[in-house]
Each structure stands twice: as structure tokens, then as C-alpha cells.
Amino acid sequence: MGKGGDLSRVGNFKMRPLKGYIAFTTLLVISAVVLLVGVTLTLLAVFQVQQSLSQELGSATFGLAEGCVEDALLSSFSNDAYAGGTYNYPEGDCTVAVAKAGDNWVFTVDATTATLYQKHLRVSILRGGSIQILSWKQVE
């Protein structure tokens, strides 16, 4: 301590008062917190948009795959020799493979949209005088 209990002097060094130090530190801390909250909210918004877009494109691809199955069912009803094939639609392309065991037919449909999303469906039918759908599943 300085002479006579003077706190502004330590030894032979005179301390300068630190005016505004607390205010500046508070400003830095508040700015860092606001920046962190802003970046977090921005990232959450971006992830939400990506998830919504992915769901929308996946639904569109699933619709394409179901449309291909429906076309294959219609073709199989009118043609005993139906063997599937590749179909091109404005929404994308799909490939239909048909496995036959008597009146039990299994359609495997792979649909791909222009955005390269893919969906795969497997539909089992019993084909006789009419078509009876036994199962309709999405497969990976």
C-alpha cells in the first residue's frame, strides 16, 4: 500500500482508475450471448427448412411410386403376359419388376424423381378373374 493507506498507490506505482471496465465487460458478455442466440436460431430455421423440403420431395417420390404400381396393376389386369418394364413420367422414372408364381404375382417398383429421391414398393396380388391385393409395402 502507498503511504498513509492510500489505495491508489501500490509501492512506487500509481494505479489509474479503471473507468468503464465493468460496463465494457458487460457489453461484451451481452453481445456474445445475443450473437450465440442469433446463430442458434438461424441454424434451427435452416434445419427446419431442409427437413420440410426433404419431406415434401419424399412424398412426391412416394406418389410417383404408387402411380407406377397402379399402372402396373392396370396393365396386369388386361395382359396375362405383363412383365413390367421402365416407365418415364414428367415427375421421374420408375422400374417395375414382376415375379409370377401361378396366380400370385409380386410387383417390385423402384421410383426415382428428378431430385434423385428414391422409393421402393413391393405389392403382392392374387390374379384370377379379378385382382386381389394381398400386401402393399414400402421396402428399403
Entry keywords:
140 residues; Pantoate--beta-alanine Ligase, Chain: A,domain 2; rod-shaped; 7 strands; two-stranded antiparallel sheet
Give an account of the 3D structure.
- By secondary structure, this protein is an alpha+beta fold.
- The chain has a single domain, classed as Pantoate--beta-alanine Ligase, Chain: A,domain 2, CATH 3.30.1300.
- Helices cover 41% and strands 35% of the residues.
- A 5-stranded antiparallel β-sheet has the order 3-4-5-6-7, with helices on one face.
- The mean pLDDT is 87.
Helix content: 40-55%
* Topology as a string of helices (H) and strands (E): EEHEEEEE
How much of the polypeptide forms β-strand, as a percent range?
A: 35-45%
Shape: rod-shaped
Q: Report the structural category.
A: alpha+beta
User: Could you please say which CATH topology applies here?
Assistant: Pantoate--beta-alanine Ligase, Chain: A,domain 2
Low-confidence stretches: none
What is the total tally of β strands? 7
Query: What's the CATH architecture?
Result: 2-Layer Sandwich
What topology does this entry show?
Layout: E1 9-10, E2 13-14, H1 21-78, E3 84-89, E4 92-101, E5 104-113, E6 118-127, E7 131-139
Please sum up the structure shown.
Helices cover 41% and strands 35% of the residues.
